[in-house]
Amino acid sequence: MQTRTRTTRRSAMRRLPLAAAVALVFSSPLAWAQSVDAPASPQDKEARTLDAITVTAQKRVENLQKVPISLQVLGNTQLEQQNVADFDDYAKMIPSLSYGTAGGGVFSGPGFVQVYMRGVASGGDGNHSGSQPSVGMYLDEQPITTIQGALDIHMYDIERVEALAGPQGTLYGASSQAGTVRLITRKPDPSGFSAGYSVEANSISDGGLGHVLEGFVNIPVNDHAAVRLVGWQKHDAGYVDNLSGTRTYPTSGIVDTNPDRAEKDYNSADTAGIRASARFDINDNWTITPQLIAQKQQAYGSAGVDPNAGNPAMGYDPGVTDLAVKHFYPETSDDRWYQAALTVEGKVGNFDLTYVFSHMKRDVDSESDYSDYGFWYDTLAGYGAYFYDDNGVLINPAQYIQATDGYQKTSHELRIASPRENRVRFAAGLFWQQQQHDIHQRYRVDGLASDLSVSGYEDTIWLTEQEREDRDKAVFGEVSFDVSDKLELTAGGRWFRAENALKGYFGFANGYSSQSSLDPEDRYGEAGCLAQFGATWTPFNGAPCKVFDKGVSEDGWLGRLNATYQVSDSKMLYATWSEGYRPGGINRRGTLPPYTSDFLTNYEFGWKTSWADNTLTFNGALFREDWKDFQFSYLGQNGLTEIRNANEAQIDGLEIDLSWAATYNLQITGGFAWYDAKLTKNYCGWIKPNGEPETVCPAGTLDPNGNVVSGPQAASGTRLPVTPEFKGALNARYSFDFKGGEAYWQASLAHAGERRVDMREAETALLGYLGAYTMTDLSAGWRRNNWSIDVFVKNVFDERAEMTRFAQCAALTCGNQPYTVVAQPRTIGIRFSQEF
């Protein structure tokens, strides 16, 4: 694993100079092209200044350069120019943003991404009974985050992406602990009719053919109302092969085969969606904006590849592709969702009043291969001896998962703000949110004996039938005071109350180990039903019984203090202290205590500056964040997710964002981030009787189960997982007049350093590190009148950029068979667009 990492890093560094050279030499041939066909050379034109960027990150309209937050913005023009179509595309452009995948047997295709910012990541997130996310995702004013991942919005007709790094607890509350990402859509415009469409075809190296169809229309109803309709349909081609092969289970000698599952380029996806919004200007002071967005996505196969693919020593045929797996059971997802929203904006006297409502419903039917669980437990512990049919004959112990997840999320926010021009001004609001997750998961073994199957579910060794509910209530506000023309002071706070409840059934049939615990509260499955109800069970949503029903609630305060100093009209300095939190919850294993909210405290100094007559902007932030009693999720005994308030960590960082209009024709943009994210205390792996995490556990210490440990599972100073020490993105675009239109060349680089997969040493020994990578994208195009044509190449050098890694079950067992999600291979595409 480490050898692969070093090789990837050397390869990336060899390619970096070449890619940089491509970006920098564009000016020579393009200047020649312009001198032939254009009336004037670049030297005859004045330098082009940078456009002002308007944002609403602080829930009011402001110039980006006046907002005292480490905030990176990708505007509509940049999104179109850099061919941004989905989350993966814009994530690599935002240095503060990292992501992982749920893994752990969950379908690993689109729509299940875990988002992190500024290195605030402990790994192991994404379980349906686990922690809430640490980064908030919003579509306009509406939250779109669910426990197992945010909605992956198709990036068409999007006005901008705002990435707010650092705690946003006072304005955005729960799950904006480490930051917030906001996708702002283009709004209906009563001033005139407009429409457009785009058609794209693309081809993946050694993969399939894909396409994208998308369009919009803006229809004025009258001078005070308009409707905007947006639609898209796309086919994401596959590039991972599921190879035909065999697997022999050691206890029984049974040989499993997959000829009916073998398929080339099997990780494809088909997506269709629509967004409809309207704007009604009731009068000069009041506006109503309803919106409905809906999408259906059918995905197939796994995005994770076997790092050993192509290695004959690991059972693969010589010469096969390295983008391959050998899976034996279905892997599919049918993801359907919609979100309805309503925004009302108006004035009461001189005060601005805003009300935002949203309701989201998401249903996901999925199938997942889980055969690694049976194979590795059989290999390491002989588990195959416990799987037999009704005749007592040993059977193939391979498992697969059939799941149905239903999500609902409803939120209300009401806020009022005083006039912006007042010397003393305030904003205050109320927030209420309720989200529910109905969970149904069958872990199936074909031919399983009836007495080993959960009652009512044939061939089902394990059943999860749960209902989870999370509620958030908050009162928030901030007050700003202009001490002078240059100095502004702001204080903000948020009172919150968070509630988490989980109930239902989980576990085996009565014939398995769920009956082995001596503690009745720790029994689950049908053994738990017997312990609670005897022979008379009360069914729960079709499951044998409601084996547990627990909840927890918390309340507390968050604060924010900020000082902003306007050095000049074009240069600003700021200093901020801020807090963010993530709600706590309950563990479904009865003997484990609830986990409480964890808090992130941020100390930040930043600057926003413009130079050279607004041809260069240079923004940045230095910060330190203290993460106290952070929540750590992992697979514990019998594969049950356990969440502990594990430890403390510290993240020191520097973030830089720049834009430079180098000449009239050439513009360069970039963002860079350096992070030192590490534990500040040992992680031993258990909780002391007082509820605090144990941090002193030298070799020879006995854990609560009486086992001798060899030292901490992760020592103080250990790097936190997921986030690299350095991440950066650079883009150069050269445009010029050509044949009566405007042409361009563009090059983009995205680099990320080596990343740790798991915080713990033993798990790291199995899962290894994700190698550093540098990816290069190139594009060129021509626009004339109302139409344009673009050609592009993504991942020009076909880099096997390792994005995330996971195993199907606990790393100390299934980590012997990890899967790596790599960037999409080299993709060549052409797109035709037209607007009216």
SSE topology sketch:
Blueprint lengths: L1 H23 L2 H11 L16 E2 L6 E2 L7 E5 H6 L5 H5 L5 E5 L11 E5 L17 E5 L2 E2 L1 E2 L2 E2 L7 E8 L3 H4 L6 E7 L8 E11 L4 E14 L2 E12 L4 E2 L3 E3 L6 E3 L11 E13 L5 E14 L3 E2 L18 E2 L6 E17 L2 E19 L1 H11 L18 E18 L6 E21 L15 E23 L4 E22 L16 H9 L14 E21 L2 E12 L15 E14 L4 E20 L5 E21 L4 E14 L46 E13 L2 E12 L2 E2 L4 H7 L1 E2 L2 E12 L2 E8 L7 E5 L4 H4 L4 E4 L4 E9 L1
Protein model, in words:
Helix content is 10%, strand content 49%. It is mainly beta and 836 residues long. The strands form 9 sheets. It has a 22-stranded antiparallel barrel. It is globular and about 80 Å long.
Q: What CATH architecture label applies?
A: Beta Barrel
Shape: globular
Low-confidence stretches: 1-44
**What structural class do helix, strand and pairing data support?**
mainly beta
CATH class value:
Mainly Beta
Total domain count? 1
Radius of gyration, in angstroms, nearest whole number: 27 Å
What is the share of helical residues? under 10%
CATH superfamily: TonB-dependent receptor, beta-barrel domain
CATH fold topology:
Maltoporin, Chain A
The CA-CA distance between the termini, in Å, is 53 Å
Largest sheet: 22 strands, antiparallel, barrel
Proportion of residues in extended strands: over 45%
Number of strands: 42
Provide the descriptors you would attach to this structure in a database record.
single chain, 836 residues, mainly beta, Maltoporin, Chain A, 22-stranded antiparallel β-barrel, five-stranded mixed sheet, 9 helices, 42 strands, 49% strand, globular, disordered N terminus
